[in-house]
Amino acid sequence: MPDRIWIPDLTLYNSVNDQKNAEDTFSKLSATVQSNGAVGWLTPALVVTFCKVDVSYFPFDQQFCPLIFGSWTYDQSGIDVYSVADIGNTAQFEENGEWDLVEMPAKRTVTYYKSLDASYPTVTFTVHIRRRPLFYGYNLILPCILLTMLGILVFYLPAESGEKVSLAVTVLLALSVFQLLVADTIPPTSLSVPIMGAFFTATIILLSVTTFMTIIVLDCHFNGEHARPVPHCLRVLVLIYMAKIVGLRATTKRFLDSLKDQKYDVIALENVSSLNGDRHGTKKEKVENGDILQRSNGRQSSVDVKEDGKIHSRLTLVELLQEIRAIRTAFVDQQKGTDSVENVKKEWQLLALVIDRFLLVSFLIIVIVLSVVVYLQPIISPQTSDI
């Protein structure tokens, strides 16, 4: 019986139980005594310990929890502690839905205390566990990436739909809800920022910028309503350089060429001036078999011709041509003004379209690079034990 033999003063150094000695920690089962005097004491025990948790790579994190066994009273001269194997026995480990047991190596350490002039040996079993990321990837990471992609598609939505800002704000609110779920899942600590939390924060900032840029794009799209021309520097930057990047240079080039080639044909009335010179020399026009009637203003405006007892009234040829020229000039001026306003509107809309496509490509690249950097970091720079 254990109470009839000497029990080594063996304890778990980093235990959180009140019991510190072996008699209270381990069960009092029978010991085996061999003929050569060797005594074996195999007893089960339930120990509770603490370890430093590093959630920097959550949910792809690995934890290293040490179990430090040694004598609390005797030094190396009284009790020499060592492990019979380099690794602990994990044959009885039950599979866990959240953690994988990677290994449990054993390491013997002898610590010399100068104040006591004694060495104390200890054996440390490091429990190396790895978190299973399937649950978090399926329920948090994948929806976050899909929502981010959906938010970026705001730049592909036509401005005429009137739903660009609504879609951006809705996606932003959805990501905020997901961030609350992540905050409830991650162990609260201020020692490190988990990569998932950093990714969610980065995507929320990205979608906030997306909403801001969407408002700017809408302002550019409807800025043509005020008939304000596009500044030259903005036209060159967006319609030439940005359009080349997003593959819309051919569209913008056709539009700019159409503005240069647009002409308004005015009816040439060269003969009108010559007619005016010939006919304005006299105030009265001689008409055969007729009388000239003048109005009180002194201008010759009509001719009454008596022919076969009938009176025909008509405008003179010069005045008729002058009226036609005035009407044509007014029509052309009005058409020029209308086309100018329409061209300004189209140019602002084309400007907004190019900016939309440029932001779509830019933000898509940013999201892909951010996802690769964040979620490949555990593979590129895996966690290591400090023990």
Kindly describe this structure.
With 387 residues, the protein is α+β, with helices and mostly antiparallel strands. The protein has helices at residues 22-25, 134-152, 164-185, 195-221, 232-246, 249-261, 270-279, 317-380; strands at residues 10-12, 32-33, 39-40, 62-71, 99-103, 106-113, 118-131, 303-307, 310-314. The strands form 3 sheets. Strands 1, 4, 5, 6 and 7 form a 5-stranded antiparallel beta sheet that branches. It is rod-shaped and about 145 Å long. 15% of the residues are buried. The model is unreliable at 263-315 (pLDDT under 50).
Shape: rod-shaped
Helix content: 40-55%
Class derived from helix and strand content: alpha+beta
Contiguous uncertain segments of 5+ residues: 263-315
Biggest sheet details: 5 strands, antiparallel
Compute the average pLDDT: 76
Number of continuous helical runs: 8
Q: Order of SSEs, N→C?
A: EHEEEEEEHHHHHHEEH
Span of the ends, CA to CA:
37 Å
The value of Rg in angstroms is 46 Å
Q: What's the total count of β strands?
A: 9
| Residue share in β-strands | 5-15%
Task: Provide keyphrases for this structure.
9 strands, 387 residues, rod-shaped
What's the quick description here?
With 387 residues, this protein is α+β, with helices and mostly antiparallel strands. The protein is 45% helix and 14% strand.
